[in-house]
Amino acid sequence: MPTTISQPPAKAMGGVRPGGARRNAGPRVARRETAPAPRWTLRRRGSWRKEIANLTSQLAIMTRSGIDVASAIESLNRQCRRPELQRVLQQVHDDVTGGQSLSQALAEHPGVFSETYIASVSAGEASGRLSDVLNQLAHMLRNETRLQSTVRTMFAYPVLLASVSSLVLLALVLFVLPQFAKIFADYDTPLPWITQMLIGLATELRTRFWLWGSLAATAVIGLLVFRRSEQGRLFWDRLLLHASLLRDVTRALAVGRVCRLLGVMLESGVPLLEALRLSHQAVDNRLWRRLLSELENDVLNGRGLSRALLASDFVPPSAAEMIATAERTGNLGEVACLLGDHYEEEGQSKLREFIAVLEPAITVGMGVVVATVVLAVMLPMFDLSTFASHGPN
Question: Of 14, 21, 92, 311, which sees the most CB atoms within 10 A?
Answer without folding.
Answer: 92
